Amino acid sequence: MATTASGRQAWRQLMRNTSRGPASSLSKPQPQQQYRFAFSRQVSSKARVASGRAASQPPSSIFRQQQQQQPFAQRSYSSGSQGGKNTPPRNSQQVKFWPFVVVIALGSGGYVLLVNRRKEMPPTDTASSGGSSTPAFSPAEVTVLFVLGGPGAGKGTQCSRLVRDYHFKHLSAGDLLRAEQDRPGSQYGQLIRDCIKNGEIVPMEVTVALLENAMRETIASTGVRKFLIDGFPRKMDQALKFEEIVCPARLVLFYDCPEAEMERRLLERGKTSGRADDNAESIRKRFRTFVETSMPVVDAYDREGRVVKVDATATPDQVYAATVDKLKKALGDKL
Ligand SMILES: Nc1ncnc2c1ncn2[C@@H]1O[C@H](COP(=O)(O)OP(=O)(O)O)[C@@H](O)[C@H]1O
Ligand SMILES: O=c1ccn([C@@H]2O[C@H](COP(=O)(O)OP(=O)(O)O)[C@@H](O)[C@H]2O)c(=O)[nH]1
Predict the structure, then answer these.
(1) Could you confirm whether the keyword Protease appears in this record (predicted)?
(2) Which of 7, 90, 107, 204 has the maximum number of C-beta atoms within 10 A of its C-beta?
């Protein structure tokens, strides 16, 4: 997808609106048009590389069709003016020039206005920083651990314990999305509801904005600067975007659990969780999304040596002991 100036603007608009509103929420409903722009924008550097190929390809077949149709359209116009037998001869004195003058004047005025407006626009991401923006938080001051694993692997269970013993702030992407979904007046409520029910991933702009807001709010209100970001990133674009504009992650804590065990846990959790996606059908879809879309993210971090993998099949206490042991080795005094 091409990175358009209007797309970048829409992203900025989204971020401005979200950072103004109450923490952890996307506060200001926006016009539908901007919303679509925001989602069409792919800003990650990898996405840009990928889209470069598409951009250099010839115009779409629809565009080509329009180009080809133009001569026909012109012919049909001219055939009318050439006139049939009954067409009176054209009197050159009847031709009026003032409409042309008005059109040219309006066109020139519009162009000048456009140029001046363009000058007032803030520089785009790529123009200002050669293709990448500075993250909001420096990894020297803020520690971010992504906590990943299949649905029901035990991410939330382990995060609660780490919060208790090591004073992390636990930010569950799923919880933030569910809160936004239920927030009266949220423009994204229905979209989030549909994605969660179908085990699909909510467009990254929404989730990244919610997480950034929650981090800002946490730092401002508690001073805590260590974050467990649970259930995120589930897709490569989220990972790239978050690390580009929010904060590079220190590592990924990955809970490895077989599907049969995760399914058993989720069906058990579903008896009391009240979650719309803790049912057999949604669980199946979530597993598929996890394998097809989220595991490649874990694999990518693994190739960079940034994954701490923990076997999640044992009891919660045993899994926690293994977690602490491995995190101490990986983080030292940052734990
Ligand atoms: N190690 C474990 N063994 C058995 N059940 C577990 C274990 N860890 C978590 N659970 C249970 O499994 C369910 C899913 O755990 P949860 O932490 O909510 O998973 P996730 O956040 O990965 O979706 C919960 O009901 C939880 O109590
Ligand atoms: O970054 C995220 C995190 C979660 N979700 C959605 O929220 C659902 C529930 O995620 P959560 O982490 O709460 O639960 P889990 O599936 O790990 O049990 C997922 O299936 C997705 O539909 C999402 O779209 N983006």
Answers:
(1) no
(2) 204
